[in-house]
Structure prediction request, 378 residues.
Amino acid sequence: MTGAPDIIPLAEPDLRGNEAAYLAQCVRDNWVSSAGPFVRDFERRVAALAGSPHAVAAVNGTAALYLGLRAAGVKPGDHVAVPDFTFAATANAVLLAGATPVFLDVTRETWTLDPALLEDALARQTPPLAAVIVVHALGHPADMDAIAPLCARAGIPLIEDAAAALGALYKGRRCGSLGDAAMFSFNGNKTITAGGGGALVTANADWAERASALSTQARSGTRYRHFAAGFNFRLTNVNAAIGVAQLERFEDMLAAKRRIAGTYDRALAGRADLRPMPRAAWAESACWLYSVLCASAADADSLVEALKGANIETRHFWESLSRQEPYRRAPSRLSGVCAELSGRIVSLPCSTHLGQEQQARVVAALDAWRGARCKDAA
Ligand SMILES: Cc1ncc(COP(=O)(O)O)c(C=O)c1O
Prediction:
C-alpha cells in the first residue's frame, strides 16, 4: 500500500551552505551578540547587492523601515503614503514613527503603487505628504520612473520597501538604489534569510549614521550619553552569520526563484481561471513568493482546499489594509484595484530548493483544479 505523498511546503529556507559552520564560529569566537564580524560582512554584502553605498543591519525589516523613516526626518503627526496592497509591517512602521499612513491604491498591471493616485495625493492631500513608501510587491519593482520624479518635485523622501526585492531590477537598475533609502527583510520566508533580520540601505551617509545610532540606543561614544531616544534594533552576529552564509549563495537562490516562477508561468499560460502574478516588460522581478490570481475569493478558497487535499501547502496572500480595523480610519485614495484583488490571491510552493518532481506535482494539482473564468483574464 502506498501512503499519502509527502507534504510540499510553501516556502522553506535552504540552509545547506556554510550556515552551520558560521554559527559554530560565532560560538567558538564568543561573538554572539550585536558586535561581531558577521554583522559588518552582512552589511557590506547587502549594500553591494543593492547597489547602495551604506547598509545598516537591523533585527528585522520592520525595524529597518522604521529606522529609515526616522533617518528621513519623519516625525509624529506626519502623513506618509503607503500602498494599500502590502504586508501590514509597512503601515505599522509608519505608525511606530507616530505618523499616519495614507493608503494609495495599486495598478492592476503590477500590484504596486499607482503613480496617478500619488500625483493626486501630492496635489490635494492635507496635511501634505511628508514621505512616500513604495513597495516592490512580491519582489516586482514599482514603476519608479513615474514615482520618483513626483517625490523629487514635492521635495519629500522616497523610501523603497524592498522587503522581498533583493536582486530585482527596474529597467536594469537595482531595487534598493532607486529611492532615498530602502529596506530589505531577511525573515524566514524570504528568498534568503538570517533567521530574522533586516537592513536599511541608503546613499546618504548622514542617514546611515543616524539609523545606525538609533538602532543602538542613540548612544554617542563609549559613555552612557544619548543624543536621542533610541532602541536596541541592531542585528546579532548569530543572525548575521546565517545571513552571510545565505548571501554567499544569493545568485543561485535568486535564479532558482526565477526558474520556478518561469515553470509556473508556462503551466498557467492560456488559462482563463488563474492568472500568474504580474511581470511588467520593464521589470526583472525577484519572484519572491509565486502567487496566482483566482476569479473570486470563493475560487481562491477552493484552490487552497484542493491543493491541501493533495498535501500541497498554499496560502492566501495580502488583502487591502485600508479596509481592516486597525487602519480603517486612516486617509486613503483608492481606485478599487486592491479591493478587487483581496481574497483572490493564492501563493504556491516556491522554496528555492523545490525539486522538479515536486513542482510537477503542484502543476498537476493545478491542472486538476478548474475554477470560474478569471474576471481579469483577457
Ligand atoms: C512588504 C513587506 N514589508 C515589510 C516586511 C517586514 O519585514 P520583517 O518581517 O523582516 O519585519 C515584510 C515581511 O514579510 C514585507 O513583505
The pocket of pyridoxal-5'-phosphate is lined by residues 60-62, 86-87, 89-90, 135, 161, 163-164, 185, 187, 198 (CB under 6 Å). The CA atoms of residues 62 and 89 lie 6 Å apart.
